[in-house]
Amino acid sequence: MSCLFTPVTIGHLTLKNRLAMPPMATAKADEAGRVTQAVCDYYQERARYSKIGLIITEHSFVCRQGKAHPGQTSLAEGADLAAWRHLTDAVHGEGVKIFAQLSHAGSAATSAVTGQAPVGPSAVFHPKQTKELPEAMTVEQIHAVARAFGDAARRAREAGFDGVEIHSAHGYLLNQFYSPLVNRRKDEYGPQSVENRTRFHREVLQAVRREVGEEYPVAVRLGGCDYQEGGSTLEDCVEACRILEESGADLLHLTGGMNGFVRPGHGEPGYFRDMALAVKGKVGIPVMLTGGVTTLAQAEELLEQGCADLIGVGRAIFRNAHWDD
Ligand SMILES: Cc1cc2nc3c(=O)[nH]c(=O)nc-3n(C[C@H](O)[C@H](O)[C@H](O)COP(=O)(O)O)c2cc1C
């Protein structure tokens, strides 16, 4: 009997099944980050023809300094919520739920895109952005970005999203604080403990909860493990997930850290399953696993093995809106 096509509950929200489309940047927004008809059509088509119960939209920047690339969608101040509403209505019309992913690129951003100097936990080059050295964030700047996440979450709710996902993966700002590879701070946000490395995350969760309330679904996408010498480990990932659950997260979406969404030397379906297996049973909230799944049978098998509660299928659906194997 299929497990994939049974309902799953995230906080106060029940999804019709356990198959989700993870966030994937289309870079089709206009210069202001406004959702265009092309973006809307792209999501509506996937909601209509693939078998997913949840779409998590591509990363949207929460403030201008956190914009990663041209064509990125915005949920920052001034975002066009009517355009977003058009999109969420279209997806709901297909019977699919939709979350917005909220993001700040930190030291992966460039002044050419944002018009401002990049910032990060420390003045350390991002492994993939070596042109501009970031400025180390002050505590006031950290608090301001946490508030920007909260404000963006409120806008997402106003625009009709069923929940939000906080992006702390693939080398973006929150991931930079979590990873000892680039976090060299000496203060209470520094790399000395997982508690310190997730302090910013807790402040973001608090700010989001202040704006959207206790019942609104809030997920965290965690780049739990760097899979490299000196980086974050599986043990760190388990501890961080426990902290995030205690701090109010409703769903943990596991993926890679400073290496991005790939895992060097691995391409098998569910190539981050070791993380998910380590976390499952240690937390009470659902776990979502994404990476390498291209068929329904693979997704089903990962669920049956108890690796996760939801499975994400990314590139296969990105390439083919009619994907169902
Ligand atoms: C074109 C493209 C854009 C992506 N954009 C995002 C993004 O905005 N936010 C994010 O968390 N992950 C992003 N990802 C990573 C995917 O969510 C997913 O983790 C990755 O594709 C691996 O899953 P898959 O093997 O099922 O494709 C992107 C991936 C691709 C291919």
What keyword list fits this structure?
TIM Barrel; 11 helices; 18% strand; 8-stranded parallel barrel; 13 strands; binds flavin mononucleotide; alpha/beta
Q: Report strand order across the widest sheet.
A: 3-4-6-9-10-11-12-13
The mean pLDDT is 97
- The CATH topology label is TIM Barrel
Largest sheet: 8 strands, parallel, barrel
Shape: globular
* Helix-residue proportion: 25-40%
- Give the CATH architecture: Alpha-Beta Barrel
Query: How many angstroms does the end-to-end distance come to?
Result: 18 Å
User: What's the Cα radius of gyration?
Assistant: 18 Å
Q: Mind telling me the CATH class? A: Alpha Beta
How many strand elements? 13
Q: Give, in order, the helices and strands.
A: EEEHEEHEHEEHEHHHEHEHEHEH
Structural class: alpha/beta
Q: What is the CATH superfamily label?
A: Aldolase class I
> Low-confidence parts lasting 5 or more residues at pLDDT below 50?
none
